[in-house]
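Consider the tokenized backbone below.
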């Protein structure tokens, strides 16, 4: 089983850059991107992510709405902000905020969040 990462982001290019950075992860992982509230609700139900990485600035709905939807999911996946506006979000206590301008740090940050949560990954066959 691979770590399932769900990106809530309106820019596919940003997710592709994050995906390139995450190629350094030593565990298997998959990703999906959603850009709307409805897509997020469906992905939480159908994709069952381990981690949701959400942009701070979303057209059509807010990161707070996204966080609330994620928190209401059962079981609730972990939630982090992945944004180019990290300085605007740094004041949010207890919420991981990762900078899109420092994607070199992303593999370490994702691993640090998911590994202690003991997200099970079966060995590759």
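A designed sequence for it:
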């Amino acid at each position: 089983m691979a770590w399932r990462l769900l990106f809530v982001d309106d820019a596919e290019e940003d997710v592709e850059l994050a995906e390139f950075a995450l190629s350094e992860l030593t565990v298997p992982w998959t990703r999906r991107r959603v850009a709307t509230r409805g897509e997020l609700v469906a992905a939480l139900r159908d994709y069952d992510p381990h981690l949701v990485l959400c942009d701070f600035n979303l057209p059509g709905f807010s990161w707070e709405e996204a966080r609330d939807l994620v928190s209401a999911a059962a079981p609730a996946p972990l939630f982090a902000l992945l944004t180019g506006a990290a300085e605007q979000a740094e004041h949010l206590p207890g919420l991981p905020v990762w900078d899109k301008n420092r994607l070199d740090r992303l593999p370490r940050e994702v691993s640090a969040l998911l590994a202690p949560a003991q997200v099970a990954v079966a060995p590759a066959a």
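Residues 80 and 95 are 6 Å apart (CA to CA).
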